[in-house]
Design a protein that fits this description.
The protein is of the alpha/beta class. The chain has eleven helices and six strands. 50% of the residues lie in helices and 13% in strands. A six-stranded parallel β-sheet has the order 2-1-3-4-5-6, sandwiched between helices. Helix 7 packs across helix 11. The protein is globular. The two termini are 19 Å apart. The N terminus is likely disordered.
Length: 228
Amino acid sequence: MPTDTQAGRADQPFRVFLVDDHRVVRSGVAAYLAMVDDIEVVGEAADGQEALDRIAVLEPADALPDVVLMDLMMPGMDGITATRRIKARWPAVEVVAVTSFVEESKVRGALEAGAAGYLLKDADADEVAAAVRAAVAGRMHLDPAVARILADSTRAPQRTGESLTRRQREVLLLIAEGASNRQIAETLVVSERTARTHVSDILARLGLASRTQAAMWAVQEGLAQGPR
């Protein structure tokens, strides 16, 4: 979801930080993001620890990135660990995993660590830009192959909508429509913090890792029709 800071600088480019152990990959991503008007690359790092250190330097200048594009497979601190630490220290900074691998354990690990999206490294510039914009808006952007893995993993028979309260079912329907936490709060006339708590409780009750899985589950169970 957009933070107050992001809302206040809506006319400025979204700040993106690149993390990948291959310099050529970082250079390539930076080059094609440079052609996107509403995105600015503000830093890069070769591993998770370096990313934490360099992002910390940006904090005193009120220049934290809006989104970190995070490679998962790196020497030293890997991307999942770095994602978890970034989200713990800077909750407003979104992370999108960018990797060559489509393994359920990696997908689940990244999403459970707090990633707001999952892309493959062969994604084109438009898709990367779309993932950045979605993350800033509080939405999830997934490569189709990753979405299929998550859809398959939601087919556990022990999960039932009967375990949800009436309000949680209302929130689940809004999640399935693609609503952000802010939009859920506005629709239900509650605070954003309350909306976020409802989403967390729904994921815990259903045993799911992300709001994207929750949306897919709701559609598969016939409780919702999905994003409009």
